[in-house]
């Protein structure tokens, strides 16, 4: 059950309530200092996920309760890592509230957008998007776009130069470009002024499928009529069919380095739309 306490300016009623769960006076002082430094940042994270002030406050208060329960770990966490630990707890609490309200599937099942990060994307979309990246690039983009660190702050945290930070950000963006478009181009479909690198038809799942059908390069079919080398889409995601025989239907995708991953029955019959690329 979520306990909610109205937050007044400065947040002192919540803090006064929370420190009653901390027994040691020295720990109370330490907790107070951490709360005052990070509470606003945690609430911002929760609000970006939940888009509701009361829900965000619920999530942050639950996060602080978790911090108190694990307060003995604080001394083992460096100052540079503390914010990421607090943000991780806050995200988990916020996502639990979001799933309860929406009664959705688990986070790993959510559709992730194909666009390169921009300020119009919401928090959970960015989280899902960044899971596609290798750890080196994921950490850098999370700090830049989720925690809104400056390049200098990222450089200090990671122990690299600001130039290296910029390189990782740019490389991370490149890795998020649509895998299926690259494969289709490699298969011989010609690019034009509409379908080209960095265009919306190249990056967007729905626009890619529409472009291929409208221009006569592909037809929409049932999965039984597709074979390896064709593609399938669902909202926000596209994959390349790598195996289709009488036993298995599998796909390969950039998301979490999937290679020959099997489609589920629901994915075959309702989740994905399947497309056959024509010979031309």
Automatic annotation (TrEMBL):
Gene3D superfamilies with a match to the protein in the record: 1.10.1740.10, Winged helix-like DNA-binding domain superfamily/Winged helix DNA-binding domain (1.10.10.10)
InterPro entries: Amidase_6 (IPR024301), RNA_pol_sigma-70-like (IPR039425), RNA_pol_sigma-70_dom (IPR014284), RNA_pol_sigma70_r2 (IPR007627), RNA_pol_sigma70_r4_t2 (IPR013249), RNA_pol_sigma_r2 (IPR013325), RNA_pol_sigma_r3/r4-like (IPR013324), WH-like_DNA-bd_sf (IPR036388)
Keyword Signal: no
Sequence ranges assigned to domain Putative amidase in this UniProt record: 179-247
Entry keyword Acyltransferase: no
Gene Ontology BP, a term: DNA-templated transcription initiation
Keywords: DNA-binding, Sigma factor, Transcription, Transcription regulation
Domain RNA polymerase sigma factor 70 region 4 type: 124-175
NCBIfam families: sigma70-ECF
Membership in a protein family: Belongs to the sigma-70 factor family. ECF subfamily.
Protein name: RNA polymerase, sigma-24 subunit, ECF subfamily
């Amino acid at each position: 059950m979520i306990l909610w306490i109205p937050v007044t300016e400065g947040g002192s009623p919540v803090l006064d309530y929370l420190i009653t769960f901390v027994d040691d006076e020295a720990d109370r002082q330490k907790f107070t200092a951490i709360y005052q430094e990070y509470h606003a940042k945690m609430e911002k994270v929760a609000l970006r996920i939940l888009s509701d002030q009361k829900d965000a406050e619920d999530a942050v208060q639950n996060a602080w309760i978790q911090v108190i329960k694990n307060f003995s770990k604080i001394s083992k966490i460096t100052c540079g890592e503390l914010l990421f630990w607090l943000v991780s707890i806050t995200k988990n609490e916020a996502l639990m509230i979001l799933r309860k309200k929406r009664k959705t599937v688990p986070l790993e099942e959510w559709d992730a957008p194909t666009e390169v990060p921009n300020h119009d994307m919401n928090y959970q979309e960015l989280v899902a998007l960044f899971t596609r990246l290798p750890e080196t690039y994921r950490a850098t983009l999370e700090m830049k776009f989720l925690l809104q660190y400056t390049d200098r702050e990222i450089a200090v945290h990671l122990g690299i130069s600001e130039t290296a930070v910029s390189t990782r950000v740019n490389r991370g963006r490149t890795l998020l470009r649509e895998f299926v478009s690259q494969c289709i181009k490699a298969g011989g479909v010609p690019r034009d002024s509409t379908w080209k690198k960095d265009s919306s038809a190249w990056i967007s799942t729905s626009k890619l499928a529409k472009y291929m059908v409208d221009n006569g390069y592909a037809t929409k079919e049932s999965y039984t009529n597709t074979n390896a080398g064709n593609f399938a889409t669902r909202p926000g995601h596209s994959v390349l069919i790598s195996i289709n025989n009488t036993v298995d239907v599998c796909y390969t995708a950039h998301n979490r380095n999937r290679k020959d991953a099997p489609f589920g029955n629901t994915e075959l019959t309702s989740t994905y739309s399947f497309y056959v690329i024509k010979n031309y």
